[in-house]
Amino acid sequence: MKTVLSIKTDRDVKKQAQMLAAELGLPLSTVVNASLKEFVRARSITFSAIPRMTKRLEKILGRVEKDLKTGKNLSPEFRSAEEAMRYLDAP
Q1: Residue 75 has what DSSP assignment?
Q2: DSSP class of residue 8?
Q3: Are residues 19 and 40 in the same domain?
Q4: What is the pTM of this model?
Q5: What's the Rg (C-alpha) of the chain?
Q6: Whether residues 6 and 32 fall in one domain
Q7: Which of 49, 69, 68, 65 is nearest to 57 (CA)?
């Protein structure tokens, strides 16, 4: 038998969760039900503060890794601030 669960949550969190669930091809209710079932099964809940990279950051870091491998877009090593300033001022 199905029942309705009514909870209060932050509007932005709900929107982000709905968008992520949709990306995975799931309705948000399926995600919530799976979380509740796991909570009941394990009789525990885990909270994690491990940050995840955004797709945009992954793309940027991918470009940086490529540049490092190919030696592109890198400045030389400087022995003094004056040397760095001359490099920056050069045409």
Answers
A1: P
A2: -
A3: yes
A4: 0.51
A5: 24
A6: yes
A7: 65
